[in-house]
Amino acid sequence: MVWASTKLTLWDDIYPTFKTMSIEYRGRHPHILYKKINQLIREIFRVPEGNVQEREYTWNKTENGEEFSVWWEATRQLDDFSYMRIEIKLNGFTSNNVGKATVSFRPTLVSEYPQDTFWQQNIIYEMFRRFWHVVFYRKKRNEWFEMGKIMAERFEKNIKSFVEELK
Asked: Which of 35, 113, 107 is nearest to 68 (CA)?
């Protein structure tokens, strides 16, 4: 992740047609998905502990049961300019250990080029950067894009199989 006040950002959704993948579950113990998702983020996407943040966490007891909503944001650094960003949301309700849950996730590949200094804002620098990106870096980004697609499909498959085990 580039730390710059001004930067050029290239943002590629791993699922470009529908951007967010959703999995719905109705059955026993939907709250167990919280621990499973936490585990899969580290196992499948290989994101270090410090790069996973719970942006939102609410777990409320109501008269009818428990309502929960969790939003994770995980960042896997690929090199100095590129990283994979995974947003995962878990929403659900449980009453007497029976309920429903929805898991939605959005993996993206992001590249950021700093443009803070006079040299980085220069047209000559931009021509060199563009040449370097097209000739060398695009191939690497395509490899990471395919890797991200494989990881996202594996994450989806593991969540679906875990949900089937819960039924």
From this structure: 35
- State the Cα–Cα distance between residues 166 and 31, nearest whole angstrom: 11
* Residue environment code for 109-128, b if the CB has 16+ CB neighbours within 10 A, otherwise e: bbbbbbbeeeebeeeeeeee
Which positions ≥6 away from 54 have C-beta within 8 Å? 70, 71, 72
Could you give the count of Cα atoms lying within 13 Å of 140 in the half-sphere of its Cβ? 14
Token couple for 66? 């428990």
What per-residue confidence (pLDDT) applies to 113?
85
Residue 1 confidence (pLDDT): 63
By the 8 A CB rule, do 26 and 92 touch? no
Q: Find the helix packing angle between 138-166 and 33-44, rounded to 10°.
A: 150
Give the residue ranges of the chain where pLDDT is below 50.
none
49 burial via Cβ count (<10 Å: 0-12, 13-18, 19+): exposed
| CA-based nearest residue to 47, from 37, 60, 34 | 37
